[in-house]
Amino acid sequence: MVLFMLFIISMCVYMFMAPEDGYDHQYYEKGLNFDKDFIKERQVETDHAQPLIGVSGKTVSITFIKPASGIIKFIRPSNQILDKEFKLDSTGGRQITIPVQSMAVGRWQLVLNWESNRKAYLYQQEIYIK
User: Is 0.85 surpassed by the pTM of this model?
Assistant: First the structure.
């Protein structure tokens, strides 16, 4: 009987000392956001609203089909601390220019989340800053 109790106690200790199983407590919320993002990405294809992105020197220029307002995220895959976010507003025209001289040289993921003509869009592209 003592051996059985020791076995049960040791199993309880082992279960509490085991690493977390990786369960994501916001799994459903992330799933709902994924659906919203997917709809925005499809809207870019449907409306042929893919922006033209150009990198020259220390500036990134983005040309939209129609005036837009929203957020641009520069995501550094190798270091999350370097990520930057800018507000965009091209109501004065269709093109915006972002200075990137303070950003590290290398590969960046550019995520554009904008609204234009009462429609929401999401577009992602990888760029290289020299």
Answer: no
In one-letter notation, the amino acid at residue 62 is I
The three-class DSSP label of residue 94 is: coil
Residue 65 falls inside a structural domain: yes
The rounded distance, in Å, linking the Cα atoms of 72 and 127 is 13
pLDDT digits (tens, 9 = 90+) for 16-54: 887 776 667 777 787 878 889 999 999 999 999 999 999
Domain that holds residue 79: 50-130
Q: Is residue 54 situated within a structural domain?
A: yes
CB neighbours of 43 closer than 8 A, spacing ≥ 6?
A: 49, 119, 120, 121, 122
Compute the distance between CA of residue 69 and CA of residue 126 in angstroms, rounded to an integer. 21
pLDDT(14) > 70: yes
Picking from 58, 47, 40, the residue whose alpha carbon sits closest to that of residue 111 is 40
Has residue 61 been placed in a domain? yes
* 109-125 tens-digit pLDDT: 999 999 998 999 999 99
